[in-house]
Fold this protein.
Amino acid sequence: MKKLFIIIISVLLFSNLNAQKNTNKLLDWYNKDVKSDKTFGVSTEKAYTKLLKGKTPQPIIVAIIDGGTDVNHEDLQSVIWTNPKEIAGNGIDDDHNGYIDDIHGWNFIGNANGDCVHWDNLELTRLFRKLDAKYANAEADKFAKDPDYKLYLEVKAKYHNKLKEAKAQYAQIQEMYTKMQASDSIVAKFLNKKEYTKEDLAAIKSDDKDVITSAAYMKKWTERGITMSEMKDYLKQVGAQVNYHYNLDFDPRNIVGDNYEVNSSPYYGNNNVTGPDAFHGTFVAGNVGAIRNNGIGVNGVAGSVKLMIVRVVPDGDERDKDVANGILYAINNGAKVINMSFGKAYSPQKKFVDSVMRIAEAKDVLVVQAAGNDGQNIDEIPNYPQNRDANNMIISRSWITVGACSMKKGKDLPASFSNYGKKNVDVFAPGVELWGCEPDNKYGSASGTSMASPVTAGLAAVLRSYFPELSAIEIKDIIVKSAVKYTKEVNCPGEGLVKTTIAFSELSISGGVANLYNAVKLADDIMKAKKK
């Protein structure tokens, strides 16, 4: 769901990303070492140079289950998985896996005509629509003990509050953007040029009050590194909430043409793995496996991977059926690591996902999932998919959930937006202002547990590449046990001006930050012990 990466836009508005873009030494901070570089990265480079040099890795397929990926990106193209048994463009299912021309993966939110779902509701909206049809005129005392009625009252209140908030925010941002447009027009006319700097703005002198006011307004945004284009993009993001996410009259599932509450067949969709908006999936793919040391772009964590692209996430909440079938596709087509940088507050067909996660464990596949960006304790407030069944029992031992951290030790080590949980978050990893790939051969900065998850998936892929004898369950155990522990008090993630503190060790099972160097050392020790 977009809430897992809306943090990208929030950072864009409220911090100066240009400062990050121009500080080259920080661009790949997630690959750096906490001791030698004084930066809380995962020690990627240290692991390669000190422990893995001269060793031969086995190529690993990593599935990027996301919202679409630019498979032609210059820093990704040569590491994108290509189905070796499929002939491109012949309209035939050459490998007989049920998917025609699945060259680089599959898109489960589309149809055979090539149409794709772009926007969708949140699960909250879908639930409210369904339950409201049943309970809108219900007598409270008659249904007081009905669990679905209790759920209805919950989602009804939450839905109306969220819609109200979204409309208010949309109106506010629209007003800001309109004022920005008007101010920009006045300043550009006064300076007689469309492009101008903060120095140009500071030098403006005029008796015209409108010019001075407009220059001051534009100076404020320029100092924050916010452009007209970026503000327009943010307005579009917020507008999507009103027009699609919380719009009861909007339902795009007719594009797919199925009953998403019934999972009788996984064979639907098309081979358009890029989709209408490939920003998020492209960024995630780059964190995992952008081509290392090629002199351009960024260095992904994993250096010997093929990235299988599976599209299940719209601009809105993913549907359980699509998630389940996306995971199943990845398993059946050779993925040994799966990254899932998405999540939502409700999961009506959770059983679909749970069943394939058990298959993942049985087939020796490691699944890495973003913990979510609500600043919540997911031991108390679930974020789905969740590695717990109805009896609160673990579903899969090869499923790892990842929170996000910043680059520095201290109270702000955990990202303020990151979900956490001593029982349900396994480890933290870099997820604040990471540099990565964007569509059309571009690069930029983004934050979120959506970024922390692929860093960890990349780490897992390295382990699976160099230690293929180790199982997915063993790899997860190694990642958790080898995390760099941090026991000091930190700001507990979440909103609010008054921050509460908590020991970082209480935010996850591992109590630490994933570390490739430590993980490789532990994996090597385990392999030596096995050979004795």
